[in-house]
Amino acid sequence: MEIISKPSPNFGSRKGAPINCIVLHDTGGKTAESTLSWFASENSKVSAHYLIDRDGLVYQCVPDDKQAWHAGVSELWGVKNCNFFSIGIELVDDDDQTPYTELQLHSLIQMCTDLCMKYTIPLNRIVGHEHIALPKGRKADPGIDLNWFELLAAIGSHVADRILGE
Question: One of 33, 42, 90, 150 is an active-site residue; which one?
Answer without folding.
Answer: 90
